[in-house]
């Protein structure tokens, strides 16, 4: 006898990064480069101001319920931030952000409010697996995957276009995740504008189709290369001129303010249709009310004080610089070891991660276990051929050693 609903039968606990991270933690002395967090000396890389602001909050401020869409000042401050980060957009088209329990809940809202069985989801061939759990297992969307990079290791606008034009369904959700998890890639200004041009042309040629453009900006701001720093919304906002396009931005303090456990994310809409914008806010609040009811007041009170604190902003910039220094150290170590002569290193220029495609004779799961047990480094095997490494977890001095040992392990195979 099974007590499960159809969804209950199909839902799974993926053997993904959380499981592999636990396996790494079980190995004495192992360095964990699996999970999407920034660490220093094996501890979360915090903003020192967090400890101070926590002591300043009175329980009369954080014990009451928060409004369902979040604290008004919190929402206003985040809208101001989005406008400052994207000066080219029309401020009147941008909704007030609504607070979500992490960006994951934002993705769940975007999926549930705008897609259902029989709709399509367009993703790169390498993507965060929770997208599939939410859109396909829970909602029955069909996934179409384009190759993020071509045979020359360049961002593939051509394959994106081919895949988009192959979709038969009338409603299509497109998730644009830059900096990307798992590859750590942000398109160049030219590439991003070309991507948006393809979407806009498709929308104009297929007016009967609805396009939901979702920007997952979890790693926003961690851009390390010139001409690869344009925020996604600063390009996709132009799609609002198409009546069959809806633009959604998902972001949060999680990575941007080194506050992963506070679980403060935001969902924000961009549309020139005033009536639709108001309806989107009402429907989203209804969905929030039926799930979490209201976000954590305590987390918002902490976040408020971080956003309004000059010292906290300076601390954030220091941490961002540390991540960038690790990125530069990683690029140098790869070059010194000539690692790309043994494996295919996918392009990366931002965020927390980079991804390696192993030779066809090496199974990624077997490699991961050998690298963990014999070399004491935990990395994430996404499938049979790709390894993702979170350099955000690696103190700068550990990076050359990891690359050297990775090379040794490859040679053993």
From TrEMBL:
Pfam families referenced in this protein's UniProt entry, alphabetically: Aminotran_1_2
Swiss-Prot/TrEMBL cofactor(s): pyridoxal 5'-phosphate
Annotated ranges, domain Aminotransferase class I/classII large: 46-405
CDD domains per UniProt: AAT_like
Matching InterPro entries: Aminotransferase_I/II_large, AspAT/PAT-like, PyrdxlP-dep_Trfase, PyrdxlP-dep_Trfase_major, PyrdxlP-dep_Trfase_small
Keywords per UniProt: Aminotransferase, Pyridoxal phosphate, Transferase
Gene Ontology process terms (BP): amino acid metabolic process
Protein family: Belongs to the class-I pyridoxal-phosphate-dependent aminotransferase family.
PANTHER family listed in its UniProt record: ASPARTATE AMINOTRANSFERASE (PTHR46383:SF1)
Protein name: Aminotransferase class I/classII large domain-containing protein
């Amino acid at each position: 006898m099974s007590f499960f609903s159809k969804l209950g039968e199909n839902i799974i606990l993926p053997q993904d990064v959380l499981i592999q991270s636990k396996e790494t933690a079980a190995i004495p002395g192992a360095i964990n480069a699996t999970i999407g967090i920034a660490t220093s000396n094996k501890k979360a890389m915090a903003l020192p101001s967090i400890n101070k602001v926590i002591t300043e909050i009175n329980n009369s401020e954080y014990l009451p319920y928060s409004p369902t869409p979040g604290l008004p000042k919190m929402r206003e401050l985040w809208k101001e931030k989005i406008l400052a980060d994207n000066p080219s957009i029309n401020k009147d088209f941008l909704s007030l952000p609504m607070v979500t329990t992490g960006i994951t809940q934002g993705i769940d809202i975007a999926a549930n409010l705008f897609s259902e069985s029989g709709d399509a989801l367009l993703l790169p061939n390498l993507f965060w697996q929770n997208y599939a759990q939410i859109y396909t297992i829970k909602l029955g969307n069909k996934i179409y995957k384009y190759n993020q990079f071509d045979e020359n290791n360049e961002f593939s606008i051509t394959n994106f276009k081919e895949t988009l034009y192959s979709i038969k369904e009338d409603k299509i959700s497109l998730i644009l995740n830059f900096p990307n998890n798992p590859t750590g890639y942000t398109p160049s200004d030219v590439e991003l504008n070309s991507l948006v041009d393809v979407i806009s042309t498709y929308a104009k040629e297929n007016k009967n189709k609805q396009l939901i453009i979702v920007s997952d900006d979890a790693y926003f701001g961690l851009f390390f290369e010139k001409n690869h720093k344009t925020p996604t919304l600063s390009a996709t906002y132009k799609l609002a001129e198409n009546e069959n396009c809806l633009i959604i931005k998902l972001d949060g303090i999680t990575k941007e303010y080194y506050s992963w456990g506070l679980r403060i994310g935001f969902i924000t809409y961009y549309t020139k249709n005033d009536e639709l914008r108001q309806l989107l806010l009402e429907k989203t609040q209804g969905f929030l009310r039926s799930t979490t009811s209201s976000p954590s007041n305590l987390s918002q009170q902490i976040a408020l004080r971080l956003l309004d604190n000059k010292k906290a902003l300076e601390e954030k910039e220091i941490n961002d610089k540390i991540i960038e220094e690790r990125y530069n150290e990683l690029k140098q170590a790869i070059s010194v070891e000539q690692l790309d002569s043994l494996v295919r290193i996918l392009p990366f220029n931002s965020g927390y991660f980079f991804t390696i495609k192993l030779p066809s004779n090496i199974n990624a799961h077997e490699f991961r276990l050998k690298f963990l047990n014999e070399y004491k480094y935990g990395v994430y095997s996404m499938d049979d051929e790709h390894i993702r490494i979170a350099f955000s977890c690696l103190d700068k001095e550990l990076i050359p050693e990891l690359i050297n040992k990775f090379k040794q392990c490859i040679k053993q195979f």
